[in-house]
Amino acid sequence: MLWPLLLLLAAGEAQTTRPCFPGCQCEVETFGLFDSFSLTRVDCSGLGPHIVPVPIPLDTAHLDLSSNRLETVNESVLAGPGYTTLAGLDLSHNLLTRFSPTAFSRLRYLESLDLSHNGLATLPAESFTSSPLSDVNLSHNRLREVSVSAFATHSQGRALHVDLSHNLLHSLVPHPARASLPAPTIQSLNLAWNRLHTVPDLRDLPLRYLSLDGNPLAAIGPGAFEGLAGLTHLSLGSLQRLPQLVPYGFRELQGLQVLDLSSNPKLKWAGPEVFSGLGSLQELDLSGTGLVPLPEKLLLHLPELQSISVGQGVQCRRLVREGTYPRQPGSTPKVALHCIDTQELAAGGSDTL
């Protein structure tokens, strides 16, 4: 019985250290039977700008160059043995104001890139076309305008997650209809806490998740989400202006399952038709808004709705009342929202809206 146990342990994952460039730390992760496969994580953070270009082991999978006061990155900084196999690169918390359009051109296996907490003001076109990226973090920079085409990658259809939150964005340039490169495969896009006054044109992107939290959006009307029928999660919390929800403003979002409108205290009803077209919506967050009490006709426009959050600790769920039994010919079940204050649940308080 001991031999199978030894095989199982050998097939697991182990971590060891190895000699590394002075000041850096190299951690080796081994995989497979008898540690037959290994990858190295190199941490060269917090050492200063003199550290680049830093030599790294040939099997390096992740390189951390964060907090080094780097002001620019070009192809020569990320060149040499070991860089061609990089899957993850962390350049966050530096002083980057720009980077060369070819800076990442040799990183043919790069999947995750963190450029957050820098001072980037522009994003070169086709910056990531050579890499199969699946995650790009550009949050907390100084970007004012970004072209969607900048995120065209060598991903072969792989889902791409892009974080552009906490910038100075006032517009996104849509991907040209007749561009030489295919539209980026962005499925998750975080645009929270920027300076967007209107919903940007994101048509033709395979978006599943979109956050516009904290933007000064003035109004959301028909056509705002054109071409985003595949979106399943939309977050519009903490909008910085008095947002107006116009009837039929969400009608293009037939596949939406989660809608977050929380922390908008001045948000008022413009009629239940605001939610017309949301036939797949299952979760609705209205906590911290002026949208309570809920209109009686709300459920008619949201046939799949299962739960609504209407306040701190207050959760409403769809309740179907079958009525008398046996059911009378032509009668239909009555649908209502059963709301419970979870903070007062011990006291037995509940209401039906």
TrEMBL record:
It comes from the Eukaryota. GO terms for biological process: anatomical structure morphogenesis. Its main location: secreted. The keyword tRNA processing does not apply. InterPro entries: Dev_Immune_Receptor, Leu-rich_rpt, Leu-rich_rpt_typical-subtyp, LRR_dom_sf. One of its GO terms (molecular function) is cytokine binding. Keywords: Developmental protein, Glycoprotein, Leucine-rich repeat, Repeat, Secreted, Signal. PANTHER family: SLIT RELATED LEUCINE-RICH REPEAT NEURONAL PROTEIN (PTHR24373), TSUKUSHI (PTHR24373:SF352). This is Tsukushi. It comes from Neophocaena asiaeorientalis asiaeorientalis (Yangtze finless porpoise).
